[in-house]
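Late entry, written up from scratch paper. The run itself happened at the end of the previous shift, but nothing got recorded in the book at the time, so transcribing now.
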Amino acid sequence: MLLLFTAFASADPLTLGSWAQNDGNGGTDGGPLVVIAPPSYAYNNGLTDYTAPINPLIGTQYLPITNNSVWSFPIGNSSWVSYAQTSPESNPFVDTPNGNYFFTSTFNIGATSTPGDASGSIAVLADDTVAVFLNGQLVSVPTATSYPHCADSGATCTGDGTVIALPSGDFVSGVNTLTFQVVQGGGAEFGIDYAASISMVPEPNSLFLLGSGLIGTASLLLRKMRA
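Output as recorded:
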């Protein structure tokens, strides 16, 4: 009698979501969104790159949204985030000049044999729109041509969020970095919201150990059956 066991295993997926430095993380696995200086790999859209004038005593700020008449509600357990109170419900309201503003967040996928050990997707809402980078690699390019209310195409501030694939080859072992180039093209409100799910597969050594354990268990079961 021959018993054959085949095993496929994967780690629990990471659930990521935007949250501000002045507010809780909503149970997500990544770090808060923080303002950074314009990175060298910024997507060139003809607008000036700015470092947002963040209050160092507060950090990035949570933007409460109680109705979805202007912006959609946040995705999942995430939050709308900005460098100041720039939402349609902010009072007092801080106006954001047109340009590019950069935010970053990190998450840890543990030791892997990347590339190829992780994959995922991210859903994004933004006012006006956003370019997304994973570890410096551009994964989403803004497609808007006008900003009547947020962007007229691509990632915008209404709906369920624009879903963007995160290529396996762009992940790195350990700490990974998401960077958001939030584009302000039509003045007025400004913000970013995202939620993501990242799946990992175990290292080959882990699979080998798992398979060896199952083979050992099967051998013991066979010996007991023959006894």
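The helical segments are 204-226.
(Scratch paper discarded after transcription.)
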